[in-house]
Each structure stands twice: as C-alpha cells, then as structure tokens.
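cron nightly-structures :: item 1 of 1
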Amino acid sequence: MDVKWGSLAEVAVVSLGATVGVVVVFALGVWALAARDEHRGSGGEGGARTVAAGACFAVCACAVLYGLYLIIPQFH
C-alpha cells in the first residue's frame, strides 16, 4: 500500500482551514446576537445585528449540508 503524503497533507490543511472558518463564522454569529441583545437593552432596535447573525448561521448551515453532500454517496 502506497500513501500519497502530499495528498494527505492537502486534505489535512483544507479540512483544518474549513473547520477554523466555520467556527469563526459561527462565533461571529453568536457575537452579533449578543451585541443585538446589548443594543436592545439600551433602547435600540438591533435589526441589522439580527440579519448579520442569521447570515452567519446560514453560512454555517450551508457548510454542514455541503459536507454531508460530499460524504453521503446517494446524493451524487
């Protein structure tokens, strides 16, 4: 059995980058929700922060669904 180390390293780097990216986007969504609650507490509306949080969570959901699409062979 021959291991292609270059391909293995490429997969590891891409998966690490995707993982960090999804975690950062999710954290931004949580931060936007917290900022919205803080803004609402001071009498503001916070609509833009809600939209930003929703967009962040939608990006995370799309990344998860794409990963499932790649893993499950019946979807191909």
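cron nightly-structures :: done
The longest helix spans residues 5-41.
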